[in-house]
Amino acid sequence: MRRREFIALLGSATLPNAARAQQSERARLIGVLMAFAENDPAAQSQVAAFRGALEKLGWTEGRNITIELRWGAGDADKISTFAKELVELRPDAVVAQTTPVTAALARETRTIPIVFAVVSDPIGSGFAASLARPGGNITGFTTNEPAVGGKWLELLKEIAPRTERVALLFNPATAVATQHFMPNIEAAASSAAVQVSLAPVHTKDEIEGVIAAQARNSGGGLIVMPSALFFDMPIRQLIIALAAHNGVPTVYFNRVFVEAGGLAAYSADFSEELRQAAGYVDRILKGARVTDLPIQQPIKYELVVNLKTANALGLTIPHNLLVLADEVIE
C-alpha cells in the first residue's frame, strides 16, 4: 500500500473517534438572569463568583460552556421579557437571582432546570414542595431562614437602645418574604418592648415618607427587608441617604448597604450563594436530577457594621458586636 493511501485510510479510521470527542466537548448552554443592573458592583461580584466556581469545576466559557447573561435592572417587565427570551434558547439550566426572577422563569418553563439564589422563602413562594425534595424543576439556595428576622430587630435594639418603634420597609411584590420573617420579628419585638409596623412602598416618594415618619419622634428605627427593588442601586443609595439625613437607625438585609454608608447588616453571603449555585449547575450538566438536589439554607451569616455612620448618628456600637462582626467599616 502506498504511503499516501495508508495515511488517508488511517485518517478515515480515526474520524468516528474524533467526532465522538468533538461531540463530548459540545458547549453546554447556561442562562443567567440577574435582578440587578449591569453597572452594580455587588451584582458583578456575584456573577464573577459564579463564573469562577464553574471554572474551578472544569467549565470554561468558549470551550465547553456558553453563558447567556441578562440583567433585569429591577424592572419587572424587563425581567419577564428576559425570562421568556432565555427559556426560548432551550438552555441546559438557568440560574435565577432573587425571588422575582425565579418566579418569572417558573412561569415560562416546567422542564428546564432552574437553580435559584438570593431567595428568602422558596416554599412560601411556591417554587418547591419542600426543602429536602423540591419536587419539580426548581431548586437552589435560600438567603435567610425565618429566625434572621428576629436577629435584625435585636441588632437594631442593641445598637440603638432607645428604639421604641420600628418600621419594616418592604415591597408588596415580595410580601411573601416579609411574612416569612414576621413571627420571629414579632417575638423579638415583644421581648424588647418595641412596636413594629409594616411599611409597604412602591415609589421613591413612599420611601421618603416612611423614613421621615420614623424621624418625627424619638425612638424611631427602620429595618429594610429583602427586596429586589431595594437592591436597585439608585433606590439603595436613596434609602441610605434618607436614613442618614433623618437620623434614623437602620438595619439592612445585606452588607452592600453598609458598604455604601448604611449602619449595620446581618445576612448570608450572596456571592457565596452564586458559587454554590455553580456547583448545582455542574451536577445537573453531569446528569443529576433537580428533584435529587435539596434546597439548601445558608451555613454562614455576616455581621457588618459601619462605625462612621454610627458616630454620625450619635450611637456607640457595643464592644461585643465589634468583636463578633465579620467586618467593621471605619
Strands of the widest sheet, in order across it, are 7-6-8-9-10-11-12
Kindly name the structural category. Answer: alpha/beta
Rough outline: elongated
N to C succession of SSEs: HEHEHEHEEHEHEHEHHEHEHEHHE
Rounded Rg: 24 Å
On the 0 to 100 scale, the average pLDDT is: 91
Describe this structure in words.
The chain is elongated, with a radius of gyration of 24 Å. It has 2 domains: 7-144 and 269-300, Rossmann fold (3-Layer(aba) Sandwich), CATH 3.40.50; 148-268 and 302-329, Response regulator (Rossmann fold, 3-Layer(aba) Sandwich), CATH 3.40.50.2300. The chain is of the alpha/beta class. Helix content is 47%, strand content 19%. The protein has a 7-stranded mixed beta sheet, with helices on both faces. It has a 5-stranded parallel beta sheet with strand order 2-1-3-4-5, sandwiched between helices. The N and C termini lie far apart (81 Å).
Properties at a glance:
7-stranded mixed beta sheet, Rossmann fold, 2 domains, alpha/beta, 12 strands, 330 residues, disordered N terminus
SSE blueprint:
Layout: H1 3-24, E1 28-34, H2 41-56, E2 65-71, H3 76-88, E3 93-97, H4 99-108, E4 114-119, E5 138-142, H5 148-159, E6 165-170, H6 175-192, E7 195-200, H7 204-215, E8 220-224, H8 228-231, H9 233-246, E9 250-252, H10 255-259, E10 264-268, H11 270-285, E11 301-306, H12 307-312, H13 319-324, E12 327-329
Parallel strand pairs: 1-2, 1-3, 3-4, 4-5, 6-7, 6-8, 8-9, 9-10, 11-12
Antiparallel strand pairs: 10-11
Helix pairs in contact: 2-11, 3-4, 5-6, 7-9
